[in-house]
UniProtKB/TrEMBL annotation:
Gene3D superfamilies: Aspartate Aminotransferase, domain 1, Type I PLP-dependent aspartate aminotransferase-like (Major domain). It is an enzyme of class 2 (transferase). Keywords: Amino-acid biosynthesis, Aminotransferase, Histidine biosynthesis, Pyridoxal phosphate, Transferase. This is Histidinol-phosphate aminotransferase. Belongs to the class-II pyridoxal-phosphate-dependent aminotransferase family. Histidinol-phosphate aminotransferase subfamily.
Amino acid sequence: MKIENLLRENIKTIKAYSSARDEYKNASADMVFIDANENPFKTNVNRYPDPQQTKVKQRLAEIKGVSTTQILLGNGSDEVLDLIFRAFCEPNYDNVITLPPTYGMYKVLADLNAVDIISVELDNDFEPKVDEILAVQNNNSKLLFLCSPNNPTANSFNSKKVEQLIREFNGIVVIDEAYIDFSSQESWLGRLNEFPNLIVTQTLSKAYGLAGIRLGICYASGFIISVLNKIKPPYNVNQLTQDKALERLNEIKEVEDQIASILKERDLLISELNSISIIKTIYPSDANFVLAKVDEADLRYKQLIDKGIVVRNRTTQPLCKNCLRFTVGTPNENKTLIKILNEL
Ligand SMILES: *Cc1c(COP(=O)(O)O)cnc(C)c1O
């Protein structure tokens, strides 16, 4: 498979915007910067940020065991996913494949980019129907989104199925690993070098506790990253985000401790949900949330709101009739949820 042939036509030859900070990289602090029309007086952020986020990428490369040339950072995963659409999909012509029930942004971004969606529902175990997916792909199928662990079903996909899809899909396979830090499965990052058509996305929004700074991460081959780099907005990751991300990436022990405590709380929450009469099924979770089937989702959702608890009602999603999604909260929040569900 030649990845270059998958690119959208106008992207093959596009030239990146060259920003002032891009042109002169090896600046030392005592140089005079009068190239970017900034205000020279210090506010801590009066200068444009590093458009290549070098320090954050270097730290991520160390932690994840990849090269910095295999990393692209964005204003949340949402921006990263949008860049992937724009790089590969011709509007009103190409299509992408998604596996509902799954993360809603794939459809929003497809609609935004005027790209068709082919949906192949997960099977009853919330696993991809591999043969069906491979059978529906056509010459215009550019992207296949695999969200693993999947939102909202909370399971990770069988790795043999994922591998077969990476090998046999004729386009780019995007594995969204937003919840990988909670998972008992290995990240696909370790196998990036084997598959030129693989893109793995991660985020600092979930396990790293930084949803507010908006930092999404894309890992792929040097070639794919170089293309995405050309089309990203030059200063897409602001200075405050870069500083905060770097600080957090240097506190890995604390992040790991929080993940361990969230997972312990999740298992406790599941065992307590098990004895609540309005809960009918609790699906296995490999993430920091739990999908549960209740007797009447719309009713229970409203009752919970009245008691001051906001959960996610997924009842309109395929295979999710009467399902609510609960994020694992603090120990106290989880106790409150259980108490109120018991009262209902
Ligand atoms: C929460 C979530 C993300 C994170 O998106 P950001 O824009 O990085 O906050 C990505 N994918 C899935 C499936 C998610 O649930």
